[in-house]
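Database export, one record per block. Field names are fixed; values are copied verbatim from the stored entry.
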Amino acid sequence: MRGEPDIDAGFDPAKHAMCESHYFEDVTVGDKFPIPSRTLADANFAAFQLASGDNHPIHYDLPYCQARGHENLLAHGFQALIQTAPGAGMLPHYFGDALIAFIEQSSKFLKPLYAGDTVYPMLEVIGLEPGRTTGVVVLRSTLHNQRRELILEGEQKLLVKKRG
């Protein structure tokens, strides 16, 4: 009838997930979780400036950059880092309800990242630290550019539930 909601009794929003939850025991060293590649345009730089408040001209003034030997706008290190955010890929969906927290990260910035570069982020399991009811999944995070150069390398740690 008109005006009455069309309710599907078979639909459950709580079961609307990308995949089944995986737990600490389901992960092995060497598992890889690629994050989709993307080209960083001027709009990405403007959005990062707005979010971070960073206003140094090396990131937003092309003549300033070129006068200092850079080919284009130079990305802030944190702008490179956020490309490896686990939420940009399938990893949080893989863990689902078993993911408790993102607890640690460290990074080394190895090469410049410029506006117009295409990045290829990757997370790889390099360590598993079991606890009583949870475990820490240690990830190697990498970011390459279209020239196959390693831009960033680091580690991230996630706290994940063990099977109950």
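Remark 1: Residues 41 and 116 are 5 Å apart (CA to CA).
Remark 2: The longest helix spans residues 42-52.
End of record.
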